[in-house]
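Quick one: sequence plus nicotinamide-adenine-dinucleotide SMILES, need structure tokens.
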Amino acid sequence: MKNNIQPAEGKLGILIPGLGAVATTLIAGVEAVKKGISQPIGSLTQMGHIRLGKRTENRYPKIKDFVPLADLNDIVFGGWDVYEDNVFEAAMNAKVLEAGLLHAIKPELEKIKPMKAAFDKNYAKNLNGTHVKQGTRQQWADEVMADIENFKAQNGCDRIVLVWCGSTEIYYEASAIHQSLAAFEQALANDDKLISPSMIYAYAALKLGVPFANGAPNLTVDIPALIELSKLTNTPIAGKDFKTGQTLMKTILAPGLSARSLGISGWFSTNILGNRDGLVLDDPDNFKTKEVSKLGVLEDILRPEDNKELYGDIYHKIRINYYPPHGDNKESWDNIDIFGWLGYKMQIKINFLCRDSILAAPVALDLALFIDLAKRAEMSGIQEWLSFYLKSPQTLPGLRPENDIFKQLMKLQNTLRHLMGEDLITHLGLDYYQELVEVL
Ligand SMILES: NC(=O)c1ccc[n+]([C@@H]2O[C@H](COP(=O)([O-])OP(=O)(O)OC[C@H]3O[C@@H](n4cnc5c(N)ncnc54)[C@H](O)[C@@H]3O)[C@@H](O)[C@H]2O)c1
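Reply:
Sure thing.
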């Protein structure tokens, strides 16, 4: 496989629909790292290591020294938003990063000005931006394609990836127009309102062979029409919804409880957050999209239908409350009712004082770098190995998603080993003892 990967030469353009809290925290973070004033903590591609070969070989390189990823110094950022603020202003408004840090990289951030958004207020009623494209959905798609090509030419980029960091859209399910590329393109020509704005960006990117990752829970690329297009243009896709905060904790903890065959009768999760994401999620239609994305996680890990005694009666409830004073500093509470030996009851309480965008930014960076690698390795369609980063991983229809973060990590690492022609690691390890037995 190794020889098929194109080197990461030249500049990589990361284009982001939605220059809000997550996107500006990502961009400012990368610029600060480039200047040597911060560290990319939380990013597996920048900080993580990978074991190669047998344990006796002691090979444990950094992932970025093992696979050919774009260097942070070769990244150029751009994007779209319904508000006109440049990235410095948007980052100041988001109030995630301190003003002192933002001022240290002000020139780099100020020059990133959003392009006009493909936007339909019906998909996010709590937003009032006016920096938007006019015309029909077909015209929006054509304009987004032109935006991508112009950005690429003006910035001298060799490659582009798109990472959706836009607001969560209202809940919608796939309908007939989403079932095939032909139906989708006909609907586009008819200016059909069932095509959501996020789908316009995804369509435009895939048409140009540009990889697309979806950081929100909207369907977006998770429809047959766009999966078909991704195969047609040999383009990798990934989604949905950055795995951060409460769901991250859930996919760390639930596999552990299940691994020890401990029962769970209830899991109540609630949180308060006051950023713009929280404002959008305050609308019940937008919250529904998030709720669906979050709810599946426990079921997929615990498999209640196969583990009736332990998880058959689990009551799983999720609440998100918009609370402006907390800004991006989300506070979450989990109450987990568990039971052990002979059914004796216990409780676990988690109070996570997290920073949403601080957790999401490295996830967005890694997705961008890995999906660019996938493109250079000629991988197309759904990149299930990137589930590690996602709350509601996209899989082929009929395949159950894997939500256990440890299995997801193993899959990601084995994919990298496979790409680089290294042995896959099963963690069996019997051969060490087998050899010993034979020597004795
Ligand atoms: N912060 C996290 O930990 C986290 C975790 C998982 C998922 N997410 C998702 O990531 C997305 C971004 O989160 P955020 O906290 O940055 O939100 P945010 O509200 O700060 O930023 C979203 C931006 O998208 C813009 N936008 C909306 N529709 C658009 C469109 N059609 N085209 C271009 N721009 C558009 C908005 O104007 C806003 O500036 C949300 O969907 C959120 O649910 C965030």
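The longest strand covers residues 263-273. The mean pLDDT is 95.
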